[in-house]
Design brief:
about 350 residues; five-stranded parallel beta sheet
Length: about 350
């Protein structure tokens, strides 16, 4: 039986389109069945080639014909790996309509043409295989579980002493974060999340989670307090730090350069948690490429925090969790299905 993932590449630049098709096809798990320069061509190619997933440079795409693509995505429930560096209102509206699709984001590197995606090809490959073969029918932006169908929360430990949970994630992290938050109870300590994602998408991501979770979930704004029952998602394109305020904590959301190649950066967030929260915190490192936050998680642990990372078997990319574990930050590796209960136990 053929287990390859049939991929359609949607990219307006003929140079980048050819490069992506060639590089993706080097993976024996992927068969590139066609390419399209814009959504109108994508409509035709989806019907002609019946791909399992789309690799889509949505930031640069001509949005004419997007409604037709959305109808096809809704009909065929095609998963999408979106790569890009920016997200204006038109792009946000467009991707929001792909509610039936599973979506993962890969942020391009600075630069133009093939230079912007060359260093991320392996990440795109792994994301494509993950979204195409995952049995979970999750969505990224809208159309999630209704309030009436929320998963039952886990029980809070009777003697919880820690009052802040810090989560870092990248490729594959949208599903991993959702898996955790859906099980955390309303009375859970406050959560801060850095998910590598462009500006605009983080607001939609937080909004979708808010409909699925027992906790309140929102995109973080400067000065937001970290309180029980609330999870704050760092906004794309901004750095987030945790600060001490009175007897509790709040977030400082600010402009800043990329750190470890990312803005928001897990490193920036976790260093601040180590500095101001120490033993009051629990740190969690989820699936993602690279090492963003690995050294900062070690600082958290040195300050008295309890820290864990996602295991290789359930990670889309075992980069960030692996480095967090190897550098002494993460005490142990945990399957994503068990992560929520592990977090509560560490409280």
């Amino acid at each position: 039986m053929d287990h390859t993932v049939r991929v359609l590449v949607v990219e307006p630049s003929v140079t980048v389109r050819s490069f992506l098709a060639r590089e993706l096809a080097k993976d024996p798990a992927i068969e590139v069945v066609g390419t399209a320069a814009n959504p109108l061509q994508a409509c035709e190619m989806i019907l002609k080639t019946r791909p399992c997933a789309l690799a889509w440079d949505l930031d640069a795409s001509n949005l004419v014909g997007m409604d037709g693509v959305n109808q096809l995505l809704s009909k065929y429930v095609l998963p999408v790996v979106v790569f890009g560096a920016a997200a204006d209102q038109n792009h946000r509206m467009a991707i929001t309509k792909t509610a039936a699709a599973k979506v993962q984001f890969v942020t391009k590197d600075p630069g133009d043409g093939t230079k912007a995606i060359a260093g991320r090809v392996d990440e795109v490959r792994k994301a494509l295989v993950s979204v195409a073969k995952s049995p979970t029918k999750t969505t990224l932006l809208t159309g999630g579980q209704s309030c009436a169908n929320k998963q039952p929360p886990l029980a809070m430990p009777p003697a919880a002493r820690r009052n802040l949970i810090a989560i870092g994630a990248s490729t594959g992290g949208t599903n991993a974060v959702a898996t955790i938050l859906r099980r955390l109870p309303r009375e859970c300590p406050g959560v801060v999340i850095v998910q590598h994602m462009p500006a605009g998408f983080t607001e939609l991501f937080a909004g979708r989670l808010d409909t699925e979770c027992h906790m309140d979930v929102k995109e973080a704004e400067h000065g937001d307090k970290i309180v029980p029952g609330r999870a704050l998602v760092a906004p794309g394109g901004r750095q987030l730090e945790v600060v001490k305020i009175g007897g509790g904590y709040a977030v400082n959301v600010r402009a800043g350069p990329p750190v470890c190649g990312h803005c928001p950066s897990v490193d920036v967030m976790m260093r601040s948690v180590a500095r101001v929260a120490g033993k009051d915190a629990v740190g969690v490192m989820l699936t993602g490429m690279g090492s963003d936050g690995a050294d900062a998680m070690r600082l958290m642990r040195d300050a008295g925090a309890r820290c864990v990372a996602q295991d290789e078997a359930t990670s889309v990319v075992f980069g960030m969790p692996k480095e967090a574990h190897l550098r002494g930050g993460a005490e142990r590796l945990v399957p994503i299905q068990s992560m929520a209960s592990q977090i509560l136990a560490l409280l």
